[in-house]
Amino acid sequence: MSTKHEQILQHIETLEIGSKISVRQVAKDLAVSEGTAYRAIKEAENQGLVSTIERVGTIRIERKAKENIEKLTFAEVVNIVDGQVLGGREGLHKTLNKFVIGAMKLEAMMRYVEAGSLLIVGNRTNAHELGLKAGSAILITGGFDTEEDVKKLADELKLPVISTSYDTFTVATMINRAISDQLIKKEIVLASDILIPIDGTYYLKQSDEVKKWHELNQETKHSRYPVVDKQMRITGVVTSKDIIGVPVETVIERVMTRSPLTVTEKTSVASCAHMMIWEGIELLPVISASHKLIGILTRQDVLKALQMMQKQPQIAATFDDMVTAEMREIKEGQQVKYECAITPQMTNPLGTVSYGVMMTLVTEAARKVLRRIKRGDLVVENVTFYYIKPVQMENIVTISPRVIEMSRKFGKMDIELYLEDTLVGKALLMAQLIDHRP
């Protein structure tokens, strides 16, 4: 039988897109406490089933498909621009395809407005009405209101009219930033992207006998299986080591390893690889918020995903990408060094390079050197960094990495940073090496 938490999530999924959800109403409908209802609604928000908007409330939205992650819903736009919904609340769940800045004459502006777009415009009531009739939502900048006729039209067409106190340029920048953040998230491969789903997963139940393990082993040639209870919650893992010398009629629950390492759908593949290598395991169960088994990850699938990540083109740049893009390789005989020009974006309020940028330069230099020696990637385990002298903007820093010790799984490096001939920073870095070969 499912828990109250799961029942609430199932109830939310059955609600019509665009409908309002309140903690009090959910608690009343399902006869649960308001605290239980609140926690379940927050979990639904994490899963992308609902969106909470100030001065509007919580509404049921359509979960976005992965290929559509770079698009925003109008509900998300309200949160991004700290907006107020003037009309068309029932359309907040819809997804915007593009946004148009209405800074031109009305006739020219309307050539770019189409269904599914967002028209960003100031106090131009005629533009508000024409935009709605063309199928576009309206974002009014400068904190202005609109006429009652426009609000009624928005309600009829189920297209949001949103007001924000920010100016047009700031609003456009904020929305662009949000889309860029979505693209960066899209590039990060998660467990949900590569897991073997439950309908293709072999698992054992607590009540099964060891004989069942032998049957699965003969069929799949695998030696490690997750163990679940009657509600499909993960309770353990059983491996070949657990059943050595155990009679075949023994119940699995008696021999399994309890409290196994698990990950959620939102765990990054890099974190999964780190756990598998550090703990020396070949399989990770993937669980839901209610600890139900939803799939598994194998070591081979994780390593293949890491290989593919290296080949993916960069769509949106993170700050680390911006910093490392400035690095230039210099060869001095057998030694490789790197130079980096310090731009204003890399500095702190005092005009000197920030500590975080220094750490990025250190780790990226180590990654580049270790990749020359050994295929694969690294996870930094420990860095001891000494910031010796400040470095101002528009200077060029030379990064000189040196391998101290290297093994199959670990690397230790000494990294020095120079400004001309002056030592400005020094680091000792230890990293765990991830071999991409399965």
Tell me about this structure.
By secondary structure, this protein is an alpha+beta fold. The protein folds into four domains: 1-63, Orthogonal Bundle (Arc Repressor Mutant, subunit A); 64-187, Udp-n-acetylmuramoylalanyl-d-glutamate--2,6- Diaminopimelate Ligase, Chain: A, domain 1, CATH 3.40.1390.20; 195-309, CBS-domain (Roll); 319-434, Hotdog Thioesterase (Thiol Ester Dehydrase, Chain A). 35% of the residues lie in helices and 27% in strands. It contains 16 helices and 22 strands. The protein has helices at residues 4-14, 23-30, 34-46, 74-80, 106-110, 125-133, 148-157, 168-187, 191-194, 210-220, 240-243, 252-255, 269-279, 299-311, 319-324, 355-373, and strands at residues 20-21, 50-53, 57-60, 84-87, 98-101, 117-121, 137-140, 161-163, 196-197, 204-205, 224-228, 234-239, 257-258, 263-264, 283-287, 293-298, 327-332, 335-341, 377-387, 396-406, 410-419, 422-434. It has a six-stranded antiparallel sheet. A five-stranded mixed sheet has the order 4-8-7-6-5, with helices on both faces. A hairpin with a 3-residue loop joins strand 20 (396-406) and strand 21 (410-419). The longest helix is centred in the middle third of the chain and has 20 residues, at 168-187. The chain is flat, with a radius of gyration of 27 Å. The two termini are 40 Å apart. Mean pLDDT is 84; it is low at 65-69.
Output the keywords.
438 residues, alpha+beta, Arc Repressor Mutant, subunit A, Udp-n-acetylmuramoylalanyl-d-glutamate--2,6- Diaminopimelate Ligase, Chain: A, domain 1, CBS-domain, 4 domains, 6-stranded antiparallel beta sheet, 5-stranded mixed beta sheet, 16 helices, 35% helix, DRTGG
